[in-house]
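User: Could you check the structure of this?
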Amino acid sequence: MKKIFFLTCTVIFSQILLSQEITQKDPEIEKMVGEVSKDSLKSYITKLVSLGTRNTLSTQRNPNRGIGAARLWVLSKFNEFARQSGGRLTAFIDTTIYKKDSRRVDRDIVLGNVVATLKGTDANDNRVFIISGHLDNRRSDVMDSTGDAPGANDDGSGTSAVIECARVMSKHSFPATIIFVAVSGEEQGLLGSTYMAEKAKKENWNIGAVLNNDIIGSNNSNETDIINNTKVRVFSEGLSILDTGRALTTIRNQGLENDGNSRQLARYIKETGERYVDHLEVVMVYRQDRFLRGGDHLPYLQNGFTAVRITEMNENFYHQHQDVRIENGIQFGDLPEFMDFEYLRKNTCLNLCNLANLAKAPTAPQDIRVEVKRLTNYTNLSWQTPKTGKVKGYYVLMRETTSAFWQKKFFVKDTKIDLPYSKDNYFFAVQSISEDGNESIPVVPVPER
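Assistant: Sure, the predicted C-alpha cells are below.
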C-alpha cells in the first residue's frame, strides 16, 4: 500500500512540474549578461571621477580634466571595443555649436555627444535601439564649471552602464542597429539629448526604443534611510505627444490610455529584465519622470519616439547636485564610496538583456485587427507577418482591464486566433517571436469593421 501511495504521489508531483511554465532564456543573451563586470563598472567610475569636473561648461582643452577629457576618454573606450567587433562598431564625437542662452549656458560652447554605433546585420532592418547616459555633471551651483564635482552616480553610473554594454555587446552581432551614447549638457537643460533627438527626427531614424539611464548605482535614500538593491524604477508615459485628434479619440473610446508605446516598452523591460537578472524587481512608475523633474528621454518623447527612464529605486539627495563637504555631521557629495557596484551591475544587465532581446527580435506584426462586426463573447484577432526577421510564431498577450501587466500569453504559428475571452473584459496585444525566442514589443489591435 505504501509503495502504491508513493508511486501515485510521484506521478502527481511530476504532472505538477510539467504543468509549470518554464522560463525560456536565449543562451547568447544569458552569456552576455554573465559577462557584465562590476569591477569594470567600478573602473569606469573611478576614471570619470578622476577628471575633476565634467560640467558641460568646463574646459575642453585640458587632457586630464573637464568635459573635453571625459569625451575623449569615452571615445577611446568605444574605439578599443571596436577592434573586437569585426568592423561592426564605429564611434565618434558628434558635435555642434551651442550658442549662449539666457538660462544655463553663459557663453558659446562646443556641445558633444560620444556615439558608438553597432551596425545591424540585416540590410532590410532599419530599426535603431538606443541606450544613453549623460556624461556631464554639476556642483551645487550648476554654473560652476571649475570646481571639483565627482559625479559618480549622477551620472557616472548611467555612462558606465552604456560603456559596459558596448564592451560586451560589441563582440556579438544583431539584425537591428544599437547605438550607445554618452550625452553632454543634461544638467544645463537636456542639451545633448535634444540635439540627438531632433537630428534623429530630421533624418527619419526608425527608433524602436530609447533606454535612458540616469542615477542607477546607489540603493539608499536620505531622511527615510531605506536601503534596497533589489528594485529599480522605470518611468514611462501613457500617451504620446502624437496622440491627438482622431488618434486620441480612438484611445479614449477603447480605454487604451495605459497602452502607449512607451508604456508597452516599460512592460517589456520588466518582463525581460526579471527573466535574465536575478534578485531585481522592475517597478513601473506611470509618469514621464520623477515628480516635476526631467531627463534625457524627454526630448525623444517630444519628438514622437518611444523612450523610458531607468533610475534607482531610492535616491539620496545628500549625494546629488551637492558640493563635497561635511555639514552637521553629514557627508555631502556624489562620491564613489556611496555607490553599490553590485546594484549597478544588475541594472546594467537589465539594459543589456533588453537591448539584445529587442535587437534580435523580428519587427512587430503588421496590421493587427480585432473583428467587431458582430457581438460575441469570443475575441477574433488577425494580423500580417512582420516586415523583417524570421519568425517561428507569435505570442498573443492578454490581461484584465485592471491589470498593469500581461497575465496570459498564447503561442500560435498562424496569423490569427479565436479566443474564448470577451474583449469587453480584457486587453490584447500581439508580438512576433524569432527562432531563438526573442520577442518584439507588443502591439495592440485596431477594430476591423
